[in-house]
Amino acid sequence: MILWQLRPRGGLARASNGYSALRALRFAPGTALFGIMNRLRYTFLLLLSAGCVEEAPVEPLPEQIIPTNITATDRDLQPGESTTLTVTITNTLDEEVELVFPTQCQALIFIRNASGRVLTPENGNHVCASVPSLLTLPAGASKSYTMEWGGGIAFGPAGTSTRVPPGTYYASAELRADNYLAIAFPITIVVH
Prior knowledge:
Strand order of the largest sheet: 4-12-11-7-8
Number of domains: 2
Order of helices and strands: EEHHEEEEEEEEEE
Strand content: 35-45%
Low-confidence stretches: 1-15, 19-27
Number of strands: 12
């Protein structure tokens, strides 16, 4: 009769006749050793395949063909002050560009808080006439849109709408034409 001693904390078993568990036991399904060896085999295969992982090619972000930017006349608003936000779109192509918009609003400006929630316009919705509009930009030409913001939940001079709480806000703009989206990356505006 062979007696087995199990070593604490996962050590190998040792038979009383001197054979190690690896020699004495068969790797038969249902045995503890089979389970351990299976786990080791899968771990080994995972480690081997980790260096062989084929990554999908990352597509670079497309460069905006018609760049758009936003500026502000004052980026530090004290109570009672307003800033003029200007969105400029520039045709950098060698030919004329026509952009068709689904509404009369062509440049949509948004004011977001630090968590990304749109505060201006209130509820994130611009009120626009649902009549299509056309923007024609000759080669090398620019078009600018301006809007006044006084730190409120609606666009307009200071004091014309409920003021947003003091803090740092991000002004950005989008031009959502049919088959083209231009985005002006955010700028910060501090409201006191």
